[in-house]
Amino acid sequence: KVDYDVCSNYGNWLYSAGVGNDPRDNRKFNMIKQGLDYDGNGDYVRLWVPELQGIKGADIHTPWALSSAALSQAGVTLGETYPWPVVTAPEWSRHISQRPGGSPHPRGRRGPAQAPVQHKDRGIDFYFSRKKDA
């Protein structure tokens, strides 16, 4: 059985491209976060991107952030066997260092330069209001 909803699929593609309808200002789809959330070990990427099969775990979501030794061990040469990223959004940086199990970033970075602001105690009005006080 194939689950296919034309409107939902087109809407999700538009949203992912950053041109979808969203009531929140300046909202962007974060591919690195989604990869870590829904494919934490990188199995899906490994299945469909055979060039990256040698990269272990969640590092597969950000091969450009790996050291040259790790890339060499995985048999990946950026710009030759796998392309450099076309875009690296600033929003991705806070997720690049997040690895399952808490292992540090391959280049020794301990975490994001600035901790993300948490809004766990805020009601839904915070997310839909124009005022964005942290």
UniProtKB/TrEMBL annotation:
<dbReference type="GO" id="GO:0003684">
    <property type="term" value="F:damaged DNA binding"/>
</dbReference>
<dbReference type="GO" id="GO:0000719">
    <property type="term" value="P:photoreactive repair"/>
</dbReference>
<dbReference type="InterPro" id="IPR036134">
    <property type="entry name" value="Crypto/Photolyase_FAD-like_sf"/>
</dbReference>
<feature type="region of interest" description="Disordered">
    <location>
        <begin position="93"/>
        <end position="124"/>
    </location>
</feature>
<dbReference type="GO" id="GO:0003904">
    <property type="term" value="F:deoxyribodipyrimidine photo-lyase activity"/>
</dbReference>
<comment type="similarity">
    <text>Belongs to the DNA photolyase class-1 family.</text>
</comment>
<keyword id="KW-0274">FAD</keyword>
<keyword id="KW-0285">Flavoprotein</keyword>
<feature type="binding site">
    <location>
        <begin position="3"/>
        <end position="5"/>
    </location>
    <ligand>
        <name>FAD</name>
    </ligand>
</feature>
<protein>
    <submittedName>
        <fullName>CRYD protein</fullName>
    </submittedName>
</protein>
<dbReference type="InterPro" id="IPR005101">
    <property type="entry name" value="Cryptochr/Photolyase_FAD-bd"/>
</dbReference>
<feature type="domain" description="Cryptochrome/DNA photolyase FAD-binding">
    <location>
        <begin position="2"/>
        <end position="96"/>
    </location>
</feature>
<dbReference type="GO" id="GO:0071949">
    <property type="term" value="F:FAD binding"/>
</dbReference>
<dbReference type="Pfam" id="PF03441">
    <property type="entry name" value="FAD_binding_7"/>
</dbReference>
<dbReference type="InterPro" id="IPR002081">
    <property type="entry name" value="Cryptochrome/DNA_photolyase_1"/>
</dbReference>
